[in-house]
Amino acid sequence: MLLVIDAGNTNVVFAVYDGAKWLGTWRITMQAQRTSDEYAVWLLALLKMQGISANDIEGAVIGTVVPAALYHLRTLCRQWFAVEPLLASARLDWGFAIKMDNPDEVGVDRLLNGLASHHLYGGRLTVIDFGTATTFDVVDAEGNYCGGVIAPGINLSVEALHQAAARLPRIGVGRPVVDSVIGRNTVTAMRSGVFWGYVGLIEGIVERIRKEVGQDMKVLATGGLAPLFSEGTTVFDHVDSMLTLNGLRILAGRNPLPRLTPEKDLLTEG
Predict the structure, then answer these.
(1) Across 109-132, average pLDDT
(2) Which of 49, 125, 222, 267 is geometrically suited to a Cys-Cys bond with 243, CB 3.0 to 4.6 A?
(3) Per UniProt, where does K(+) bind (predicted)?
C-alpha cells in the first residue's frame, strides 16, 4: 500500500492506494509547525477505522508547496510508518518536458496535475486548480508542461475585500441564490461579484489560452471549489477532485521509492 500526502497551503490531504484503488482520503488543516506526533495521533486513528495498520504501508510519496511542513511530514513517514518518502520535485522522472525558464520554481502541485491529466484524459489540456491560488496549467498533446496562469484564489480575494473595505462584511463563497447578476443589497452584490466575477475570469482566460495555442483543448477542473463553479459555466469538460493525488501515485510508479536505511537518523532532515 502507498501512503500519498498532498500538502497544500490550506489543507494536507492523506490517502492510501492499494495498487488498484483508493482505500480512503483524509484532510486536515495545514499548519506548518504541526509535529509528526500530532499527525500520527490523528492519522493512525483514521486508518484504523478503515482497517489499515501502519505495517500495511509499504511506501510513501509527498507533494508539498509548503517547505516548512516537509520536515514533520517526512518524520511522520519515517518514525510511524518506517518508510522513506519519495519527495515530488521537478528533478524526478516525470515522463515529459517542463517547458519553463526555471523548472525548479514551478509548484509541484501544478506538475502533478499535468501528469495526471495527461495519463487519465490525454490530448491537449488546460487544468484549472481552485486552491489558495487559482492556477491554469497548459499541457500539450505529448504531455509536456507548457506553463500557465496564476490568479488570486477566490477565498483569498474575498478575505482581502473584507479586510480592505471597512463597510463590506465577510461573506462565504457560494453561488448566488438567484441567477440575477444585479444584487439588491450589499451581501448579494458581493456574492454576485465574487461568483460571476470568477466565472468570467475562468471563461476569459480559457478563451485566451485557446486563441494563443491555436487549437481546441479539453478543460479540467480540480480543487475544492471546482464543483461550485461547474454550476456557473459550461467550459469544464471534466471535474476531478482526485487529480493531484493521482498525479502523486503515478509519479511514485515512475520513480523508485527510496529505502529507509538503519544508518539514517530518523530525525534528520536529509
Answers:
(1) 95
(2) 222
(3) 129
